[in-house]
Amino acid sequence: MKLLLFLSLCLAGCSSSPTQQKTVLKDSVLSDTSQNALLIARERASTLKVFDTLGELVSTIHFRVAVADSISKDGYLPYIGIEYPEKEIRNLFDKNEKVIDENKITIIIDYPLNHSYKGEFKSTNGFTRLSLINEISKTYHQLYSEEEKTATVKTLPLSKRKIYNRNETNGKYGIWGHDLGDLVLADVLVYRNSSGEITITLEVES
Predict the structure, then answer these.
(1) Can you give the residue range of the structural domain that contains 124?
(2) Which residue has the higher pLDDT, 197 or 19?
């Protein structure tokens, strides 16, 4: 998760200046320490985004997955994997509970993207946790695929990376910092504007 990433990277990294925060991650140019510092700055900035222009925050949908007590003292993990959620869906709490009544919603995905994605989800009977995670996973797969197809700077394989984290690519969305397998969904934030339209944003961690 982001907090764990901050702590681990801080051991090897250093604080970044405003100039560093605007610098593009380039494995061939930056030192490991500089890359770590830039990643920390970007992670921190991603947690500070405000979406109050979307309307009133009407609910927060939590995703919890039951696990063995040896893994979690509370008996669950407060997130579900995005790349292959089907591995955890059978243990997803209240997966069939309807959490959004509307049949059409707007979704905004901005992590870990330089250029955010805005799209629509449609359903004939509202949305459950199960339907949301399935749609979110499918959309992330689409975004990462489009990024790779449109980028001239390709994703480096693990064997060629100076640090574990994914290098920044320059495709349609400018994905940085994390492979799809790193990402987990913790919460979905639900906003309603004055026209009654619903927009969701995601609390995605890594």
Answers:
(1) 51-205
(2) 197
